[in-house]
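In response to reviewer comment 3 from the previous cycle, which asked for concrete evidence that the modeling workflow produces usable outputs, we include below a single protein chain processed end to end. The sequence was submitted unchanged, and the resulting structure tokens are shown without manual editing.
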Amino acid sequence: MTAPGLVVVDKPGGITSHGVVSRIRRLAGTRKVGHAGTLDPMATGVLVLGVDRATRLLGHLMLTEKRYDATIRLGVTTTTDDAEGEVVATADASRVADLTADAVREALAAFVGPIDQVPTAVSAIKVDGKRAYQRVRDGEEVELKPRRVTVHDLVVHDVRLGAGSEVPELTVSVRCSSGTYIRAIARDAGERLGVGGHLTALRRTAVGPFDLGTARTLEQLDDDFAIIPIAEAARATFPGVDLDEAEAVDVRVGRRIERELGGLSAVFAPDGQFLALYEPRDQGARPVAVFV
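The workflow returned the following structure tokens.
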């Protein structure tokens, strides 16, 4: 069985995140594989997976920021807020023709900063123990509550609003907190402009410190299965603290230690072994998760 660690995949389109998990389970020789944040089948890009004990890191990785490149089509609203859903409304052609690039950029600028966002109805959020997307598939009406998320940066690269048969769309890059739905930004920007909108392409370019330069395709992993060891992954993801031997003994059994930490930190034994995640508490530091 493969040693515990992280695998960073460049997910292709047309496969679910669970499908990627199944592939990595086979390659790693263990069923203990999970991922740090779902990507829709249509979406591509960075998907971070944990193997064995490293799955316990994933809940903390999900708190980090993420980056995306996306294409938004204006004038058409769908059931899923992306191109895979059914069209439910098409704006009047004259109204779309009246849009200007400045108006589009101004509308998108309104989504930068802390915002209360209503997730798309076909999200993986659980409603009374059942995934929202499953309730939609079962014909139920789903109303999700707004959630506070943060869009740190939203850069509009290109706005194409040509007349005639040209599709009105724009490309954007987004840096945001975990839990932000880019589909919802496309939907809400379209509503703000009065014409509707949906996502036609989405590529996640980074999850925390892991980006497309780190990621490998499934074909590459089939040929050479590469895993980031858990100690290396922890140092890349959290502030690292090197302990002395006495502190390491306390950490191994989950005791409080006399350390001043700036926040959630990865702590290491003198030999470099990753021991635990600790956070500042009670004028010292206490464990969040112990890995030995």
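The chain has a mean pLDDT of 91. We consider this sufficient to address the reviewer's concern, and the full set will be provided in the supplementary archive.
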